[in-house]
Design a protein that fits this description.
With 499 residues, this protein is α/β, with parallel strands linked by helices. It has 2 domains: 8-241, Rossmann fold; 249-495, Rossmann fold (3-Layer(aba) Sandwich). It has 18 helices and 20 strands. The strands form 4 sheets. The chain has a 6-stranded mixed β-sheet with strand order 6-7-8-3-9-10, sandwiched between helices. Strands 16-17-18-13-19-20 form a 6-stranded mixed β-sheet, with helices on both faces. A hairpin with a 2-residue loop joins strand 14 and strand 15 (320-321). Helix 14 packs across helix 15. The longest helix has 16 residues, at 178-193. The radius of gyration is 23 Å and the shape is globular.
Length: 499
């Protein structure tokens, strides 16, 4: 570990929210030219600590020391003055502004005439930052037209453009493919050589050992350990994070004899650019859908579910044609657990109970007469079954951790009696403990006869969880890999090869 004085130190930081101690006397030094990996379960206090660092939250107690001097960080403006930039897990982009305007929002270059933005200079500078990240997007593209992964890259570009001395990255690779992740890692190493201090929050243990110079572990709002990567193991880190042993392997009994044909897609095309997509999925199977960011995986899922307009081809569910919007797909027993759970999978300002019952109201109350006692009973059954950590079924979903939010998205479809599940990045932004629970749940679904189509940017998940997989490239199916062929090199070969 570094022996020089910290560039910035958070000392004895505490933060309370109603009914919750989010941070309890946490001290956290940040050194120039070092990557400090900040680990912990969802709800451990990682993001809260970074929001205190950035001035988005005010600490109830504690001090900030910058180059050994005590100072105050009372707002994001104070943090930016000190050279602190943060890539939050929750995007802070303006959907109907273009990429360049989002990157330089509040920092636009002006012409000699006061008040007039120099658009040419701004787009030129945006182009330089995007090239640094290997992004080929037009800087005039509106952000709402980008997928989650592309928006994540824009967030990274925005932070990099600030020439920060302290850069905080909260799950920056959660939506990125292997190729985009490799580019980001190269950039991090370059910034580190230039003396930039990097705080990196991740639930991917491979990243911890690939990038980290120091590891800090939080649990229940307290710092429980500071370690060197060379002095610890993945199993020890998991134990420190969750306080118990967790099986981080992907052990599963693969499906030798799949059941009836659950999903048949032929020649599928949509208004989002996918075309000629053919795939099949049988009951009892977990079938992967792999590919690089922008290859069309999410667009296939949305077209099957009716969220995007189908322009050609057919979709059959258990032998019957499926056409129409998501409401029709849901009535036919099709569930979509979307990539962006906060925007597309949850009503954040509604309660846990409201969200869990949303998709199953017609089934639970066929006479359109809601009975509160029955609704609460059904809700509590799902909370207990999925081990959703919430103080009450009336708790607003926005206040729960990412792992528990993901369980709620899945739970609402379980009550609806769905038999075909489409999981789009099911473990995005959740900790190792919750990840194991999600995979156990998916395994139980297929054991009970359901069929699962799973999209994941983590190739190890595809290889170790799926019975077989389709690989996409340029918004078409590039190939199909049976169980014996399913490997990371084979997936990448199909995903990246060009005729």
């Amino acid at each position: 570990m570094a022996t020089a004085a910290p560039l910035l130190e958070l000392r004895g930081i505490s933060k309370q929210f109603p009914g919750v101690c989010a941070l309890d006397q946490v001290s956290f030094p940040i050194y120039a030219g070092e990557v400090n990996m900040l680990l912990g379960e969802n709800g451990a206090g990682k993001s809260t600590l970074m929001k205190v660092l950035y001035g988005a939250y005010r600490a109830d107690a504690g001090d900030f020391l910058y180059h050994g001097r005590t100072l105050a960080i009372g707002s994001p403006a104070d943090a930016r003055t000190l050279g602190i930039a943060v890539i939050f897990q929750e995007f802070s982009l303006v959907p109907f502004l273009d990429i360049a305007h989002n990157i330089f929002l509040g920092r636009e270059p002006y012409r000699i005439v006061p008040g007039l933005i120099d658009h040419r200079a701004m787009h030129a500078e945006a182009r330089k930052v995007l090239d640094l990240l290997g992004m080929e997007y037009d800087t005039r593209t509106l952000v709402h037209r980008l997928g989650v992964a592309q928006q994540q890259l824009v967030e990274i570009a925005k932070a990099v453009s600030q020439n920060a001395r302290i850069l905080v990255m909260d799950e920056p690779t959660a939506a990125l493919s292997e190729r985009e992740t490799a580019r980001l890692f190269a950039l991090i190493r370059q910034l580190k050589r230039e003396g930039v201090a990097i705080v990196y929050i991740s639930h991917r243990l491979a990243e911890v050992f690939a990038l980290g110079d120091r590891i800090t572990v939080l649990r229940d709002g307290r710092k429980v350990a500071t370690l060197l990567p060379s002095a610890t193991t993945p199993d020890e880190l998991v134990h420190l994070m969750v306080g118990r042993a967790v099986d981080t392997t992907y052990a599963r009994n693969f499906c030798d004899q799949p059941g009836e044909l659950a999903l048949q897609v032929q020649g599928l095309a949509s208004d989002q650019g996918i075309s000629g997509v053919d795939l099949e999925l049988r009951a009892g199977e977990i079938v992967g859908l792999a590919g690089l960011v922008g290859s069309g995986r999410t667009e296939v899922a949305r077209a099957i579910f009716g969220a995007d307009k189908v322009t050609a081809g057919t979709v059959r569910v258990y032998g019957e044609p499926l056409a129409g919007g998501p409401n029709i797909a849901a009535r036919r027993g099709v569930a979509l657990i979307p990539e962006n759970r906060k925007q597309e999978g949850l009503a954040l300002i509604r309660s846990v109970q409201d969200n869990l019952l949303l998709a199953s109201l017609a089934k639970l109350f066929p006479r359109i007469w809601f009975r509160p006692a029955d609704g609460r009973r059904a809700c509590m059954e799902t909370i207990d079954e999925l081990r959703i950590a919430t103080p009450s079924p009336l708790r607003l979903v926005r206040y729960l951790s990412g792992g528990n939010q993901q369980k709620i998205v899945i739970g609402k479809w379980l009550k609806a009696g769905c038999r075909l599940f489409i999981f789009d990045e099911p473990t995005r932004g959740i900790d190792v403990g919750a990840k194991a629970e999600i995979f156990n749940l998916i395994g139980e679904l297929v054991k009970s006869g359901a069929a699962v189509l799973m999209i994941s940017s983590e190739l190890l998940e595809i290889v170790h969880v799926c019975d077989r997989a389709y690989v996409m490239r340029d918004k078409r199916i590039a190939g199909h890999l049976e169980r014996g062929e399913l490997s990371e090199p084979n997936i990448l070969r199909l995903a990246m090869h060009h005729e």
